[in-house]
Amino acid sequence: MLSFEENVYVLSMLVISVTILVKNYRQRNPLEFWSPLTVISLIYFYYVLVGPLLAIRNNETYFRFIDHREYVVYAWRISFIGLIGIISGFTLGRKKTIYNHVESEIHSEKDNVKKNGFRLFLIGLLGLTIFSGLGGVINKVSFWDINAFARPGYEGAFRNYFLHAIDFFIPAIVILFIYVIKRKFSVFWFLVFLFLALAVYTKEGFRWRYVVLGLSLMITYYCVVHKKPGLILITVIIISGIAFMGFLGLTRNYGRGLDLTSITGKSNTEIFLEGFGESSIFMTTGLLVKDVPELFDHINFDPLIQTIAMPVPRMIWPGKPSGDYIEIYENLYGSKQFGYGTAVINFGEYYLSFGYIGVFVGGFLIGFFYRKIWDWFRRRPNDEAAIAFYAIAISYLYVIISRGYLPQVTMLFFFAVFPAYIIYWLNRNRSTAESSPTFR
Hints:
The chain is mostly helical. The strands form two sheets. The chain has a two-stranded antiparallel sheet. β3 and β4 form a beta hairpin.
């Protein structure tokens, strides 16, 4: 049973999310369905509503030696405040100018966009080779662990930069996919690139890359053909996606690929329900809100300071901020031993910084930023590079909301999302760009 306060938050967020989805789906222009608020509503359904409710219903709120049932209300509270902040920022970020029709104002040089997408994939592959060595690359492009290949890779100050070059695969594949849809790029080579990317991402074991890449490809397809999926297809995609998340959650083995023995004896229902396993992150967020500032002080601007400092390697700046405030997440369970790997949603980090005001302001800034991206895209719906950037940017909302560690979220944004905008900027038609602002 839910308490009165919990019912208020759950029903309010449910009504808001359903209203947004229905309203956007019924828009005459099919592109309007792919508003950032649509993606945010779907993420809320998965992370904030269905996952926690299933955990409560199935008595699965006990983990890390603590029953989190009493803390869920705190997580729902900041999620509700954050959602109001997002909608406020999205609404107030709208420019007063009304466009009578949607028209592409700046066209990218199409051939150059395709070439740069191909080059970006090669850059990512080169970065992986430098990081892992040639033998390490052979190991990583298999779905299972092949210990026969050594990994004599680069060990210098910029090592992590070469590792994250694999995130370039996301914008590269999305861009090339556009030309596959338009029959201007080989399907065979696209599938080869896609296979290599999925093999590497499987070996690394982080599900967010699968989510962002898969969602980006789907959004890209419908933006290119100017359609929206039918309700039955949407249902099939969602159920399949959750089941796949469950499969990856059970079989992934960080840095070593898939361990299929871990699903031996598991029913299809158990694998599907495992797809909601990240509801534990949501419940941990409630525990954080309960303990701050009672046991832990607010950290104020620490996330922003450490985000600014993060690009500089520690070998170059030994005294740079360490980003150790995430140890607070682990210490929620008494020690690093019991709390290792603990994470919270983004609103948990905002609360840790400035309390409930921080949650609202953080949500407001997300809404405002994505409103600008949305309005920018609506003026360029036929531009290949703009489509790629927009599709990846709104898919990346999954990472922004699901992980409360601003330095990492920001760094990954510049590797996985921003390259698509760089390609757009480099290849825009300069004859019209001078009289046309980049963002509205």
